[in-house]
Amino acid sequence: MYIERKEDLSIYYWLKSLFSDYSFVTIVDGFPTTELVIPSIAVEPDTLEIREFELGSREGVRLRTWYMDVYAKNKSQRDEFGYKILDALKDGIPVYDYDISIPSDTEIGHLNILKRRMKIITIVPELVSTMYYRSSVSILAINDRL
Fold first, then answer.
1. How many domains does the chain have?
2. How far is CA 59 from CA 2, 12, 54, in A?
3. What gap in Å lies between CA 67 and CA 76, rounded to an integer?
4. Most buried residue, 32, 60, 69, 120, by CB count within 10 Å?
5. Model pLDDT for residues 53-73, shown as the tens digit of each residue
6. What is the Cα–Cα distance from 13 to 82, expressed in whole angstroms?
7. Range(s) of the domain holding residue 102
8. Which of 102, 136, 85, 110 is nearest to 13 (CA)?
9. For the chain, what percentages of helix, strand and coil (3-state, to nearest 5) are there?
């Protein structure tokens, strides 16, 4: 399995652990494609950028972006979930080896969060059948053990 997929799964399981006390919250790996269950949090990778770092090295620095979309029943729930994610990200996210087992406890890396951001997304009631509240937490990270 590629390291990128291990990072994706690590964020997914990190979110499941972060919201383990909230049994009513659904965590989704990828954009929800079935009927949306509210409340839900979906994690989706976005950009992978490799920048030159050292002369003579072809590895470069790998910068990655992810979005964690919060779908909530009301404004309070949306804000609480978004702020919870933002606060927990300050310590970064461990990366685990999912070639061994899923879930895994063998740590092989660590995502150092370089940038965190939360954006409120306005939902137009006339365009959706079920009213819900949404925000998107985005992160820019580097695996600091590669």
1. 1
2. 15, 26, 9
3. 20
4. 69
5. 655 556 678 899 999 999 999
6. 17
7. 3-143
8. 102
9. 25, 40, 35
The encoded tokens of residue 50 equal 């490799």
CATH of the domain at 82: 3.30.2000.10
pLDDT tens by residue, 4-63: 999 999 999 999 999 999 999 999 999 888 888 999 999 999 998 877 665 555 667 889
Starting at the edge strand found earlier in the chain, the sheet holding 26-29 runs 26-29, 40-51, 61-72, 133-143, 107-121, 93-96
| CA nearest neighbour of 104 among 5, 3, 4, 9 | 9
Q: Structure tokens of 90?
A: 């300050």
Q: Mean pLDDT over all residues of the chain?
A: 90
Query: Can you tell me the distance from the alpha carbon of 9 to that of 15, in angstroms, rounded to the nearest whole number?
Result: 10
Question: Are 62 and 142 in contact, with CB atoms under 8 Å apart?
Answer: yes
Q: Which two tokens stand for residue 8?
A: 């994706």
Q: Which amino acid is at 25?
A: V
